[in-house]
Amino acid sequence: MNHAAVVGGGVIGSGWAARFLLHGWDVTFFDPAPASAARLDQVLDTARRSLSALYDGALPEPGSLRIARSLTGAVAGAHWVQESVPETLDLKRSVLSDIESGASTDAIVASSTSGFRPSVLTEQMANPERFCVCHPFNPVYLLPLVEVVPGADTAPDTVNRVQSALAELAMKPLVVRREIDAHIADRLLEAVWREALWLVQDGVATTEEIDTAITYGFGPRWAQMGLFETYRIAGGDAGMAHFLAQFGPALARPWSRLTDVPELDKALIDTITAQSDAQSGARSIAELETIRDENLVGILRSLRANHWGAGELVNRWLQRH
Amino acid sequence: MNHAAVVGGGVIGSGWAARFLLHGWDVTFFDPAPASAARLDQVLDTARRSLSALYDGALPEPGSLRIARSLTGAVAGAHWVQESVPETLDLKRSVLSDIESGASTDAIVASSTSGFRPSVLTEQMANPERFCVCHPFNPVYLLPLVEVVPGADTAPDTVNRVQSALAELAMKPLVVRREIDAHIADRLLEAVWREALWLVQDGVATTEEIDTAITYGFGPRWAQMGLFETYRIAGGDAGMAHFLAQFGPALARPWSRLTDVPELDKALIDTITAQSDAQSGARSIAELETIRDENLVGILRSLRANHWGAGELVNRWLQRH
User: Fold this and answer.
1) pTM value?
2) Do B210 and A188 touch (CB under 8 A)?
3) ipTM confidence
4) Partner residues linked to A294 by β-bridges
């Protein structure tokens, strides 16, 4: 497989296009918005610079890019069609149906959905066996994780082909064993998000203070070990069971407001927007993106040097190429 | 201030002792457990190696360490007493009361509590005006965040002195504007923890898969920008209000199981323990600690090179010393 069609060219779709192109795949790209091609150019520039820094300049020969004028023109002949249109069920179903009519019968059809279960998306599809959720993380050209979620009708061979292709793209497929709304990572993020909304609404913390609590505290831990491995260490030599015995009782305490759902009303939206402006408004989004990507490259390079996690994934990919 | 008493020498207390000592403070250390002194030695070795790597070898002249044989002997004459005993209310209150009787009247008395509100801890204290929660993050000698939570009776001058001292220790004080159980960061962590327990219990993901979802996905993002700044970027030039308009409706979906509290019963503890053993059991805790610290040093060094966040904090500290 070396030809991808990218349908939907927002932040995620453009990121996919950059990931495919800079790892040698040909890409046909379709988005009805007139500004999407310019946006893609900008993402490609950033991605080329970032990946070149991450890979010591050892980028493969890039694939060719074609901006298609129709969805049908984009998907014809593609080996992999990646749908990244906005997160609305009717729209996704309709676009997937159009993709299905235009794509080769042996093409992989994948959705970037962050929330919908594959079986919900494929209800009206004629060939759901070649469909799979492939949910990436922004920026897609730098972060390796892809949640691969097969639906009830997805063929095992589809999952195998998806995993191989993602490995060739230097990505990390995480096959999710049971489909649920929002898969794995976004459920964790959603939990943090709800709690953060309560903290802002109740005046306990501003957006900047919450971000400080993350980036100076547990954030750096999670770039390299997750929740469970970190807590295993905290438990010391007595192990995970000991840690759980210590930590367990806290669950019964009313710490978290998450037993309720905050209402994201106008007042809360205005508060968050104003706090976010105060926190980050001095920099444009483009500046913030550049800073973020330079930081991510630095972090991934440091993990490369330590042969660990996301860094070691890059090392192994570079050895193969 | 240059003399700290560390009361309670587990992972957190030993980490505090290392942080103080390696930034030039004298430390008196008290823990009734016979093994605590050996444990402290080991933490000090690791901390010295890690901080030396983070600071380009430019460590200040270390302070002197004295292992005290009694709590009273430890706190006498100290400018700052840091309590880090197990997270049990009665124990903490009783130890804080002992500290109060033994410490100088102008000493700062701080607690490492991750959960209790300061006003709850000080209910029986005679001089709560010099008390403050100072909640650090493991490993304390490397991660800069300290949640500084004043109680109803804490004097403003106490908060000022704590902030200055933490800056001298190359730490990042985050003054929490309203005391609530678990402060800020642990509320976010608790939210993730509960959701993760559901995912394991429902057989959606193993501990290793959840850790993969974190470390290859949003973890590296959070080492350098938090929840809100990351989402601001995702919203693009239309800004935070636009992002919230897109994201808001998802809150009403039943994505998160966090509207309920999982029971951490024996079956779930056994499942998590077995999965954690399968994930990380091939390495000892000491090996995992070494890997974690080398990774954290690498990440913080990469942020130093980019003059950003926790890395820039170190740069500024080194310039002053």
Assistant:
1) 0.93
2) yes
3) 0.94
4) none
